[in-house]
Amino acid sequence: MLINTPIRLQSFLEARGHAAHLSANSVCIAVGDAEWPLTAAFTFLENELRITCQIAVLGDFTENQLAHFCLAALDANMQISPYAFAIIGASENDAEASQCPVVLTDTLLTEDLNDDEITFSLNRLLEAIVLGKDLITANR
Questions:
Q1: d(Cα 76, Cα 135) in Å, to the nearest integer?
Q2: What are the boundaries of each domain within the chain?
Q3: Contacts 24+ apart (CB under 8 A), 29-35
Q4: What is the C-alpha separation between 25 and 45, in angstroms, rounded?
């Protein structure tokens, strides 16, 4: 099945047991576990589907902890491909850098996006979340 619209993605995710919430160009689902509930956002942009899952904010770490976490996250990016750790909106001009989200992210082309690709990406996200939780716990 071709999955190239939010409505098709919502139907696909709901058929697999997820409570999928639809907005204009995005679909969100709950991921993580009871101890660490998270939300994955699937956002349709021009020719791609961007998947993001916030796992922390910069303010969750002291300066020393953040340095250790960032190094560990850069190293882990090779292990969690196609996902990567990223910081959204962190620049010297941001007034509230402590509120910048630390996310796991993946991007898929929508031209011929199908259920196998979504399933693979979602499975890899769940694996990346486990690693992300371990990295955060180890660096706090």
A1: 9
A2: 6-90+97-138
A3: 31/125, 31/126, 31/129, 32/129
A4: 8
Radius of gyration of the chain (CA): 16
Q: Which helix (H) or strand (E) holds 128?
A: helix 115-138
Which residue's entry shows tokens 């679909």?
27
> Quick one: pLDDT at residue 92?
60
Name the one residue in this structure whose structure tokens are 């690693």.
Answer: 131
Q: How far apart are CA 62 and CA 59, in angstroms?
A: 7
Question: For residue 99, what pLDDT is reported?
Answer: 86
Tokens of residue 62, six digits = 């002291």
Is residue 9 within 8 Å of 27, Cβ to Cβ?
yes
The identity of residue 130, as a single letter, is: V
Say how far apart CA 3 and CA 115 lie, in whole Å: 7
Second CATH level (architecture) for the domain 6-90+97-138 = 2-Layer Sandwich (3.30)
Query: Taking the chain (140 residues) in consecutive chunks of 10 residues, what is each chunk's mean pLDDT?
Result: 94 96 96 92 96 95 91 92 88 71 96 95 95 89
- In eight-state DSSP terms, residue 105 is E
* Secondary structure letter of residue 62 according to DSSP: -
